[in-house]
Amino acid sequence: MLASHLRAPINRIAHPLGRAVARTGITANAVTLLGVVLVTAGTLIFCSGRLVLGAAAVSVGGILDMVDGAVAKVTHTASTFGAFLDSSTDRLSDGILFAGVAWYLVEHPNAGIRLELSASQVLVLALAVLMLGFLTSYIKGRAEALKFECNVGIAERGERVFIMAVSMYFNVMVPALVLLFFLSALTVGQRFVHVYLQAKRS
Questions:
Q1: CA angle at residue 153 from 149 to 158, to 5 degrees?
Q2: What string of H, E and C letters represents the secondary structure of the chain?
Q3: How far is CA 165 from the centre of its chain?
Q4: Of the N and C termini of the chain, which has fewer Cβ atoms inside 10 Å?
Q5: Which portions of the chain are predicted below pLDDT 50?
Q6: What is the pLDDT of residue 8?
Q7: CA angle 111, 116, 120 (to 5 degrees)
Q8: Of residues 157, 168, 188, 139, the one with CA closest to residue 65
Q9: What pLDDT score was predicted for residue 10?
Q10: Residues catalogued as catalytic
Q11: Which residues contact 48 (CB under 8 A, 6 or more apart)?
Q12: Cα(first)–Cα(last) distance of the chain, in Å?
């Protein structure tokens, strides 16, 4: 929802970046794949204990997720496959990021603010956030395939990655996971209800 409201100012930043990248000859799909590589590298760096550097790499990877679309528009190369690749790599990046966070928190039981949660509880929490994130995206994709509109929800992918990256900077991943759990659950509920009401009227 926040990302949708900020779409115009985000585009004002992404489009100049997209034009700059396009001048290098790098394709939109290459930018998409580079984003995955950076998120993966950032997660590995983060898991090695270098939280700030890892969070920085993840943040840049998240930014590239905005830039790839801008590159496609500037170069007039937007395609169905490009959209498919972008959605697929988003799921891959999410899986890598949250799996890395879960591993780090289990392996470092004294890391950050734990909220009195055990390692196993933190692991279940991280997996629940990942599952809800996947479900959030699936509901929208399935709804649109059935010709329903589904642009609702308080926590889209942009919010989830932003919150997680910031929490990595400040070593407060567990409170961030708790926040993301409730925001993601609310988003899933919002989308279910939104599609249900459309289906009921049709």
A1: 110
A2: CHHHHCHHHHHHHHHHHHHHHHHCCCCHHHHHHHHHHHHHHHHHHHHCCCHHHHHHHHHHHHHHHHHHHHHHHHCCCCCHHHHHHHHHHHHHHHHHHHHHHHHHHHHCCCCCCCCCCCHHHHHHHHHHHHHHHHHHHHHHHHHHHCCCCCCCCCCCHHHHHHHHHHHHHHCCHHHHHHHHHHHHHHHHHHHHHHHHHHHHHC
A3: 10
A4: C
A5: 1-3
A6: 58
A7: 75
A8: 157
A9: 58
A10: 90
A11: 54
A12: 25
Location of structure tokens 């009227």: 201
Q: How many residues does the chain have?
A: 202
Q: Token pair for residue 87?
A: 């959605």
Question: Mind listing the pLDDT tens digit for each residue in 112-133?
Answer: 888 888 989 999 999 999 999 9
